Amino acid sequence: xxxxxxxxxxxxxxxxxxxxxxxxxxxxxxxxxxxxxxxxxxxxxxxxxxxxxxxxxxxxxxxxxxxxxxxxxxxxxxxxxxxxxxxxxxxxxxxxxxxxxxxxxxxxxxxxxxxxxxxxxxxxxxxxxxxxxxxxxxxxxxxxxxxxxxxxxxxxxxxxxxxxxxxxxxxxxxxxxxxxxxxxxxxxxxxxxxxxxxxxxxxxxxxxxxxxxxxxxxxxxxxxxxxxxxxxxxxxxxxxxxxxxxxxxxxxxxxxxxxxxxxxxxxxxxxxxxxxxxxxxxxxxxxxxxxxxxxxxxxxxxxxxxxxxxxxxxxxxxxxxxxxxxxxxxxxxxxxxxxxxxxxxxxxx
Length: 349
Hints:
Methylamine Dehydrogenase, Chain H
């Protein structure tokens, strides 16, 4: 690894990098990327090709009484179906505690959500004793649900948590996650909302209106074409089985010119076989150059520092690198610029 004094030459590190398309590419951190997909998120500290991440369907106890579906939570029955018409309604019904085989209302047994006529799509127990009520126009929180006297409290509508289908909302660690036209929105602790897709809100094509599940063990929210890592607070995208890694746009602190001779890639061999890396270069704000291929033989060392000279070395203000293919047995750890003022021996201990 490079000595600390050469940290200014690091183009990309802190892998796997999280997406950030809302900020300019020249303003990103080394662990951010403006355009990447196809990472193996189980490989910590490296970039490794991988397949689409999947979550697990939420487990919820349900029962049917007289052809009416109920969920069993907080020791009582809950229902969003009109008991006479057997269709979903905008009224939540709840039963008396401990009655599991027969629906027996307690108190009024009804909580209306009639700000509009839209039906309730889903109920999600979460937190210590909360219930999330999902509608196409917004979400609601019922608190104190474990109270045996049914002294519940109902929130006003939270419009940023609207979902168009029940599959577009899930729960993880006491927080609610809803995927709608605004991206992935979280309700933290039943109180405040946060936009988990804030860093890509300029282009939500791959992150909006998707069915989502949770990977409970790995603390991730998984959509059809994206994954949000809750602990790392990073967003990742998928695109079939394709791979791409685009670095930030490198520049010196004062944007002064520098000589770009090549790059140094710190990588790990996952096997004794060789591999291939394909990349493109972008100088200043010009178009991406043609692809270049790097052959990476195995030389009886697991960790190596690979130097790649650029075909046309020149003086620039900004530089960006895009990796378009990476052999499955090669793991990238960091990418550094090899500037003319430093030699390779300065980086390798």
